[in-house]
Fold this protein.
Amino acid sequence: MSKILVIAEHLGGKLNSSTARAVSAAAAVKPEAIDVLVLADNVDAIAADAAKIEGVSRVLTVARAENAHPLAAVLAPQIAKAAAGYTHVFVPSTTFGKDVAPRVAALLGVAQVSDVMSVEGSHTFKRPIYAGNAIITVEADAAHAVVATIRTASWSAAGNGASSASIEALSLDVTLPTHTRFVELKQGKSDRPDLQSASKVVSGGRGVGSKENFEIIYKFADKIGAAVGASRAAVDAGYVPNEMQVGQTGKIIAPELYMAIGISGAIQHLTGIKDAGTIVAINKDGEAPIFEVADIGLVGDLFKLIPELEQALG
Ligand SMILES: Cc1cc2nc3c(=O)[nH]c(=O)nc-3n(C[C@H](O)[C@H](O)[C@H](O)COP(=O)(O)OP(=O)(O)OC[C@H]3O[C@@H](n4cnc5c(N)ncnc54)[C@H](O)[C@@H]3O)c2cc1C
């Protein structure tokens, strides 16, 4: 029988919804138990949130000052130690998970299964390859623990259960490395919804033309309460910072509504929006590949069409 350890992702004392998505993937394995591991300096609020997730058996906490910031080099040895007795370790395939999971896999001496999009059996999983152009079925060796990252866009977040799971403090006898230290966190400040979890996203591409012109995208996004994303060409041209990039080498997102404005629809961009609900494209080139995946397409100049849309919205 399987026993799964899900690693909680959190920031600023709040549990990230990616954790509940990883719990959904864990539930699909139909395990005997799903435990969530919270590594932080102050674990209480995060653990209480994790305990509410439906399907969670226990929440295990490791409260240490060294865990105040998610440094993969510091977290991985603790996770590897806590993984004893578990058949699977699941981590969300976010920036956090992509950083920490390979180290955990290396410490446990196994090959990681990346970007699990469906569970076919306790050791058989589907994952995208070639920028999402093909799906491969992989089988992990049942003789070893499975370390897997979970493609969050493929799983809905497990809801809250009727009762809370128990919370237990773990004491791990691990020597933590000192070669990697937290120095400073630099992050963009925005009052807009978070790109990775927003239900609506408006993205601009090279077609927007400049950093100044991007104002039209921000204004429209604010009007409809959307997060703002961008293509890599827009990032590379310096119109927007790179945390806004959507796609293969950016963020993989699954909003209910995705609006691609002045974006051609390169395969590396489409990989990031494969699981979006309704896709709307605005492009002056009627032959642009984005129209092949768009549910609604508007052919025309974005600088004319967006003000018209804004007006129609009142
Ligand atoms: C390994 C690798 C990884 C990559 N990863 C990513 C990734 O993560 N994300 C990503 O986005 N790309 C990625 N790319 C780059 C990708 O291949 C494309 O180059 C990029 O997505 C193009 O961005 P774009 O659509 O904004 O620009 P373009 O392809 O230049 O398209 C601009 C579009 O705007 C339209 N347009 C111009 N002016 C207007 C106007 N006034 N009104 C309306 N429409 C207008 C044009 O018709 C055109 O279709 C990657 C590439 C490689 C090789």
